[in-house]
Specification:
about 350 residues, single chain, alpha+beta, globular, binds 2-acetamido-2-deoxy-beta-D-glucopyranose, about 20% helix
């Protein structure tokens, strides 16, 4: 009798574990967080390869699948979205936001944040996946990875959080002033999330940026910084600079109309990264790498890494956007080791 009972118990526990909302690795197993770097297509064939890390990998490991595969970590993580997208249940919610959404949705006006991400949640847990990829995700599991996503490098950070954290994550999304192109938030979920989904809320008074200390489901500390367009200043030199704890490299897109130069007149110098070399590639220019991140130069000042959604560009000073940061030393080593060259300070 006891064995039958245990068997039932294990089945029930097993089921909840596989159906709950979590960041997931390529095996479909729940992971607390991951960071993913899709490499650019620099050799004419590997534009869908990616590097992956979570708390168990101690740095970059190559994905076994390409990013567009149904078994990539991104696809495994989005599975509950595609399982539920056609049935508006009162137990599962999602917000897909992107200033450059996939067809048939229209590009957001520049009053919206320069920001891209996915929130999936139920009343227990949820994920916040912040990324840099235009046209992502597509409408179903067969077309979730966009055709436009082949050539350029892209970055992703996924965190698993308790439901209660999303009341505050929603406020970060209000500062960023995200453009939700598809969403469903059940009526009984936080009104702050409804407001983001309805594009109804934004900060009304200074300061026009907000810091949120987040604890992942397994207890890791991540920090979100969000700025609203009315801050009229650069995310890296005006917001992140105060918290990096030392000089830092800032990696943004290399094809900008009015790029900001490295900034050597702020407390912590901001050096623009010019070339990146991933463990699986030759060095490449930021003109083929749309990823956005920053990492301190010196680990002893602070091993601080941020995955961002903005570029160092004049017009983006007046747009919303943000970054999710961690002081995990393995993450610091992984990013610090891929900086190949940077723009020095003027003499
Ligand atoms: C450096 O950054 C600060 C804060 O964003 C800004 O006010 C200043 O103009 C920048 N300086 C240069 C040389 O870019």
């Amino acid at each position: 009798m006891i064995w039958i009972f245990l068997g039932i118990l294990l089945t029930v526990v097993g089921c909840t574990a596989t159906t709950s909302i979590s960041c997931r690795n390529e095996q479909g197993q729940a992971v607390d967080w991951y960071i993913l770097y899709k490499q650019p297509n620099i050799d004419g064939k590997n534009g869908l390869r990616y590097l992956y890390m979570d708390e168990t990998t101690n740095g970059w490991v190559p994905g076994q699948y390409t990013i567009d595969d149904k078994q990539s970590a991104v696809a495994q993580t989005l599975k509950p979205l595609f399982d539920n997208i056609d049935t508006e249940t009162d137990t599962f919610g999602y917000i897909l936001y992107n200033d450059q959404p996939p067809v048939p949705y229209r590009t957001a006006s520049s009053s919206y944040g320069h920001s891209k991400g996915v929130v999936l949640l139920d009343k227990h847990t949820g994920i916040w996946l912040s990324h840099s990829t235009p046209d992502f995700p597509g409408v179903d599991i067969n077309s979730f990875w966009p055709q436009s996503g082949y050539h350029n490098g892209q970055s992703f950070i996924c965190g698993t959080y308790k439901y209660s954290t999303f009341k505050d994550i929603a406020i970060q999304l209000e500062y960023i002033h995200v453009n939700p192109f598809n969403s469903h938030i059940p009526e009984s979920f936080y009104p702050e999330l409804q407001c983001v989904a309805n594009k109804g809320c934004y900060p009304k008074e200074a300061p026009y940026y907000r810091q949120l200390d987040m604890t992942t489901l397994a207890g890791h500390k991540f920090v979100s910084y969000a700025k609203y367009g009315r801050l009229h200043d650069d995310l890296f030199s005006a917001v992140l600079d105060k918290h990096m704890g030392g000089d830092f490299y800032a990696k943004s897109w290399g094809r900008l109309r009015h790029p900001l130069p490295s900034n050597c007149s702020v407390p912590n110098i901001v050096y623009n990264v010019e070339q990146v070399q991933l463990p699986t590639t030759e060095p490449f220019s930021i003109t083929v790498d749309h990823s956005k991140w920053s990492v301190t130069v010196d680990e002893s000042s602070r091993p601080w890494t941020c995955i961002a959604d903005m570029n160092r560009e004049v017009s983006q000073e007046s747009r919303g956007g943000g970054a999710v940061c961690t002081d995990n030393p393995a993450v610091w080593s992984a990013f610090s080791s891929i900086v190949f060259s940077y723009e020095p300070c003027p003499n």
